[in-house]
Design brief:
Helix content: 10-25%
Number of strands: 14
CATH class of the largest domain: Mainly Beta
CATH architecture of the largest domain: Sandwich
Strand content: 35-45%
Distance between the termini: 33 Å
Number of helices: 3
Order of helices and strands: HHEEEEEEEEEEEEEEH
Radius of gyration: 17 Å
Largest sheet: 14 strands, mixed
Number of domains: 2
């Protein structure tokens, strides 16, 4: 089955309705996901990195296949109308179209921190607790403390949602602009601007372009589940706006 590239794909809307209606009480989670999204989601075996891909996807400049392994220092790119869902260690990602992302490590106090550099594009990611992470974009540097996050970046701004968990958000253009977000369920999305607007570099943002079922999918690939119960009313459509 092809990837659901369109955020308003009717299959996504169907899944949201099933979630809201409590359909998972009657059907196994894996079966419902498989019917709507394709291959039955489950923890990927150690010798496999990619759950699914669509369109033009490359790893270190080489076209990717389902057999491609993704390592801790690789660079991944997606073309127009393309998407990649993959696992790296204890983390899982959904890299959307027209994106470029590099993985790496940097030394920190008495440890090494995994660093995700989102050069351009959009990514949904989940990370294990007690596993230091950092996300870097053109406009922001974000410390991750075992959480699920969504980011979009371009030269003018970064959109960032702490889906759950704790993040430390820092604006690259202003060392004094920083924010710690503790979130249970998409509580405080923000924009981090390249240039301050009305005296603010970090600004409140709406909830956009990612869903709970997508978080559920990628958490499943690393043997975890999101730390929340799906609400009965908040997700009556494919996206939620405040």
């Amino acid at each position: 089955m092809h990837l659901l590239r369109d955020p308003d794909d009717p299959r996504r809307r169907l899944l949201v309705k099933l979630l809201a209606a409590g359909a998972f009480s009657a059907f196994p989670m894996g079966r419902v996901l498989a019917d709507v999204l394709g291959e039955k989601p489950q923890k990927l075996p150690p010798d496999r990195s990619i759950y699914r891909l669509s369109g033009q996807v490359s790893v270190n400049g080489t076209p990717a296949t389902l057999k491609t392994r993704i390592g801790p220092n690789d660079t991944i790119e997606t073309g127009k109308n393309s998407e990649l869902v993959f696992v790296n260690g204890l983390s899982a990602f959904m890299l959307r179209e027209s994106s470029r992302m590099s993985l790496g490590q940097q030394p920190a106090t008495n440890t090494m921190v995994n660093v995700l550099r989102l050069v351009t594009g959009k990514v949904l990611a989940v990370f294990a607790p007690n596993n230091p992470q950092r996300i870097s974009t053109i406009t922001a540097t974000i410390g991750i403390r075992g959480t699920g996050v969504y980011a979009e970046t371009d030269p003018e701004q970064t959109y960032f949602c702490t889906c759950y968990g704790v993040t430390d958000i820092n604006a690259n253009s202003d060392p004094n602009s920083r924010k710690t977000v503790t979130s249970k369920h998409h509580d405080e999305p923000v924009y981090i601007l390249a240039k301050p607007k009305d005296g603010k570099t970090i600004r409140k943002a709406p909830f956009i372009n990612h869903t709970d079922q997508e978080l559920m999918l990628i958490e499943t690939l690393v043997g975890r589940s999101p730390p929340f119960v799906f609400p009965s009313e908040d997700y009556g459509g494919p996206r939620k706006d405040y």
